[in-house]
Backbone:
């Protein structure tokens, strides 16, 4: 059995607790992929010390040179793409095609960070006084605690770690217990690419021990987290006590609108992909489909037929369209929501149960599930289920469609299928979400554009693109007075 280690101060070190957790394949729970340290708060402390010590040196390296190291990491990740994607499918369950996309997102983000090494733009502006020059530039924040979920085991740590490092921060990384091997490979790649000791530290373990120790540690300056809104609120509370910079990417209850003038075939492909890719376990997943009454029956029928025939199975089989969900407790949670939906009076027209049979019994396979007649304020319409469950809503026009879409505490992704430019423009303007797709599904964000949401989906930050550097840098404002005399802002007048 492969036993994995933490990476602290440039060394691979065994668990101090002597305790381990198992990483198993959700498509076949008998398959143990490896065991990983159940680390203690002491190990977090060591990692923070190493990161704090390494910060001065790392921050002093010019950003383009830090970028060179990330370019090397991108090249290694590119070379190992297929191997890592297969690891990803084994530990996460998502189908290979999607695992390759997950890895590719990491590669793209590393190359983008490499390029940003030669930009890291900031502003210069005129001074209100003569012979005075004003400029701003970006400095690193310090030590970042990075806590990521299992649903994008390469892309999400990449979104955070690569820009954090490029900007000159050092990192203590706590990966998810459900997909730790990708994290191990990612850190291995950074080590091979030449990241100096102490700059990236990896501490495996539980949220309740390792996660909490990171949140409370006084020498951690910032936290970047992706996960549920409940955990996000807890992070803000605990990490807020030591006034850390906090970036939270949280839940979603994303909807796709299908108008009566839409290309229904296209809308169908988008809806199926948005709802059932990654078995619905994306924060961007389509969990609500809002359809104009004129095409409701026709579209529902089309969707039902496709969903019913979706091939579910082990993601390593290239013909499979949907893999298992991550673990037993997630499977139970999804099923509980199905029961809640039924009790609430929604009509279950497809799925709503675990798949049975020899090829399924050792994994956590849930049937593609559809509810209709869902009351807009019911729990299944409002809460994030994070599984292959969609709710259908019938509306009479674009205004009602947008109203139903906005009726949620979340605001991450959204989509509308229409051929009418006026309806599309209205949706762009009125939908309360961080992301709106026109004639595309709610999933498929590109790494060089801002990613994040409004309302309870986050706390105002955007990962991705140039905006992620607002999370991982602090702005220094500089006034250079070359007048040779004391000039007083707000007091001196131009004439005097
Ligand atoms: C997530 O689920 O947390 O847009 C991220 C998408 C992916 C990223 C999802 N590129 O669906």
Residues:
């Amino acid at each position: 059995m492969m036993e994995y280690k933490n990476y602290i101060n440039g060394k691979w070190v065994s668990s101090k607790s002597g305790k381990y957790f198992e990483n198993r394949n959700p498509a076949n729970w008998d398959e143990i992929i490896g065991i990983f340290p159940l680390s203690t708060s002491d190990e977090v402390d060591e990692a923070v010390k190493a990161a704090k010590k390494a910060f001065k040196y790392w921050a002093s390296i010019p950003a383009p040179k830090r970028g060179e190291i990330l370019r090397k990491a991108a090249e290694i990740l590119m070379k190992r793409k297929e191997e890592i994607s297969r690891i990803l499918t084994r530990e996460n369950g998502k189908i290979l095609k999607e695992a390759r996309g997950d890895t590719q997102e990491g590669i793209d983000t590393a190359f983008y960070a490499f390029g940003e090494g030669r930009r890291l733009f900031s502003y210069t502006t005129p001074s209100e006084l003569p012979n005075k020059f004003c400029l701003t530039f970006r400095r690193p924040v310090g030590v970042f605690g990075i806590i990521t979920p299992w649903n994008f085991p390469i892309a999400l740590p990449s979104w955070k770690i690569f820009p954090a490092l490029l900007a000159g921060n050092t990192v203590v990384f706590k990966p998810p217990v459900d997909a730790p091997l990708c994290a191990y490979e990612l850190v291995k790649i950074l080590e091979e690419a030449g990241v100096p000791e102490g700059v990236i530290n990896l501490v495996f373990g539980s949220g309740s021990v390792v996660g909490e120790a990171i949140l409370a540690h006084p020498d951690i300056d910032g936290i970047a987290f992706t996960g549920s809104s409940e955990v996000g609120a807890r992070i803000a509370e605990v990490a807020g006590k030591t006034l850390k910079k906090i970036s939270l990417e949280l839940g979603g209850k994303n909807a796709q609108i299908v108008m009566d003038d839409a290309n229904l075939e296209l809308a169908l492909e988008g809806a199926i992909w948005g709802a059932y890719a990654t078995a619905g376990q994306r924060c961007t997943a389509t969990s609500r489909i809002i359809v104009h009454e004129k095409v409701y029956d026709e579209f529902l029928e089309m969707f039902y037929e496709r969903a019913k025939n979706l091939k579910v199975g082990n993601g390593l089989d290239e013909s499979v369209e949907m893999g298992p969900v991550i673990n037993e407790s997630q499977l139970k949670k999804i099923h509980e929501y199905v029961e809640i939906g039924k009790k609430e009076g929604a009509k279950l027209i497809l799925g709503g149960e675990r798949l049975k049979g020899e090829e399924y019994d050792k994994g956590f396979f849930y049937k593609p599930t559809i509810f209709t007649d869902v009351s807009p304020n019911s729990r299944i319409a409002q809460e994030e289920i994070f599984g292959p469950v969609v709710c259908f809503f019938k509306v009479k026009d674009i205004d009602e469609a947008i109203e139903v879409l906005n009726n949620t505490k979340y605001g991450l992704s959204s989509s509308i299928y229409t051929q009418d430019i006026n309806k599309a423009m209205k949706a762009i303007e009125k939908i309360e979400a961080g992301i709106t797709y026109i004639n595309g599904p709610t999933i498929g964000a590109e790494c060089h554009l801002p990613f994040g949401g409004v309302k309870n989906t986050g706390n105002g930050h955007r990962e991705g693109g140039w905006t992620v550097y607002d999370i991982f840098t602090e702005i220094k404002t500089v006034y250079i007075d070359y007048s040779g005399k004391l000039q007083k802002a707000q007091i001196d007048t131009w004439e005097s």
Summary: The chain is about 40% helix and 20% strand. The pocket of 2-aminohexanedioic acid is lined by residues 105, 151-152, 156, 226, 282-284, 443-445 (CB under 6 Å). Residues 241 and 468 are 23 Å apart (CA to CA).
